[in-house]
Amino acid sequence: MNEPTERPIDPTYEPPIPASELFPPARLKAERVQLALVQLPGWALSPDGLALVRIFALDTREAALALACLISEICRARGHEAALLLEGARLTATLSSPAAGGVTEADLEIARQLAFQG
Q1: What whole-number distance in Å separates Cα of residue 38 and Cα of residue 48?
Q2: How far apart are CA 109 and CA 25, in angstroms?
Q3: Residues with Cβ < 8 Å from 88, sequence gap 6 or more?
Q4: DSSP single-letter state for residue 37
């Protein structure tokens, strides 16, 4: 039988840089974001123009917490993050890409997935 052999650890090894760091996502122009928002009910551009924001008013705190978990999972699956603020039965979701300095296509795609009426 072939026994696995241990390889010595190379102290000079550096893992490859992820493509997302080499080529950060491109920030979308304000006009492109405004055009997309027409088809995203409930979503708005933050006052500073750097994020998409939506407030979900739900019936119970448990429903708002479940939605927060769903949004987190959708973002995680895409390698993204959302800022979520839970206040009772109200959930505020903020989508932005800090590496790009604002809203990217990835933010719009997640907003499209969350464009249901809530």
Answers
A1: 19
A2: 13
A3: 61, 64
A4: H
